Amino acid sequence: MPQNAAIVGGGTTEWGARDATWKDLAQEAGKATFDDVDGIEPDDVEGLFVGAVQPERFAFQSHVAPLTAELLGINANKMIARTELACASGQAALRYAWLAIAAGQLDVALVLGVEKMNLGKEYMPEMQSNMTNVLDREFDGVNGLNGPSHFAQFAQRHMHEHGTTREQLAMVSVKNKNHAAETDFAQYRKRVDVDDVLDSYPIAPPLNLLDCSGITDGATGLLLVSEEKADELGAETAAYITGSGQSCMAGNSINNLPSMTTWPQAREASQEAYEQAGIDDPLRDIDVAEVHDCFSISEIIEYEQLGFCEPGEGGQFVEDGRSQLDGDVAVNPRGGLLGCGHPLGATGVSQALEIYRQFAGAVPSARAVAGDPETGLIHNLSGSGSVHSVMTLARDPQ
């Protein structure tokens, strides 16, 4: 019989443009994670999974999983791996840890997402060049396509087909940045309004500066254990993984995407997770969701593809307040990528930690999800938007 796996705690560094090395970030997050969980020490960890996207280019360091084990004093005597799946690398690390515990290979796993991206303003061209590597560099890169210009195409087409407005895009950023103002590790902690977003510097029309996530240094860790180990620890709160789905339907080149307004990969990945978790109606059955708002248009399309509303209705969904803390489903209460920043390998790990903390009531009241949330979801896209990863979580095991 598969074992249930539970997140029993975690910790994070401060996110932003840090005067810290890759090693510093890994150690900070590792210490914060062990400090958060009574009864687990580095010696207890059997498996280590490190989500890291471009340490070779940003930190000039590869083979970072055993390096992390050394930094944290861990003997990962049963399993160790680094995961790389662009922006979904952190969730991939968590997924592999979950599968290892479910298979009975591990009882205790540490999942750590780490990214050092800021090299100083004088290196901005190199930093931006590094980011183009997650697209097809030979085909898409030579045509000038990077994150903002590519997602601007999604926004333009969605506006054309569905009447989505510039103000609705801005409402996503306002919601998430105002949540981030209450998040103590977030990169951006300044409250904004719609006019602030509309008046910010144009990057790739219709996307302005405040429609775009930042370049971020940061790390986050989680301790994942079997249900038996969670009981042994006497954990009062846990976030059990109830389902996981992943889909890559078009490779990575932008010209192979099946649509510029829908992401069938997200639908397929979410349906796989929903079936495993026994979720029939995600709008009714999911209390809190952390989704991949790398740009404001992303969250609007994700409302639609994850089943929170019908295709084309995402703009109205945010305008009607249905993704607010007291809405139909609370989306990105920590501030998302737009507010917290986006240290690539750490994002998916941080999303899962937020779900755990919402279950535990361990977040500031100003951004606590209304009611008593019992179910959650995390979502990441990666590359050109061709890969989508979805995981569902619950307070209680199935």
Automatic annotation (TrEMBL):
Residue ranges annotated for the Thiolase N-terminal domain, each copy included: 6-228
Coiled-coil segments: none
Signal peptide: none
Pfam families xrefs: Thiolase_C_1 (PF22691), Thiolase_N (PF00108)
Residue ranges of domain Thiolase C-terminal in the record: 252-394
InterPro entries (alphabetical): Thiolase, Thiolase-like, Thiolase_C_2, Thiolase_N
Record key words, sorted: Acyltransferase, Isoprene biosynthesis, Transferase
Keyword check for Membrane: no
Top-rank taxon, per record: Archaea
One Gene Ontology MF term: acyltransferase activity, transferring groups other than amino-acyl groups
GO term, biological process aspect, one: isoprenoid biosynthetic process
UniProt name for this protein: Propanoyl-CoA C-acyltransferase
Protein species of origin: Haloferax sulfurifontis ATCC BAA-897
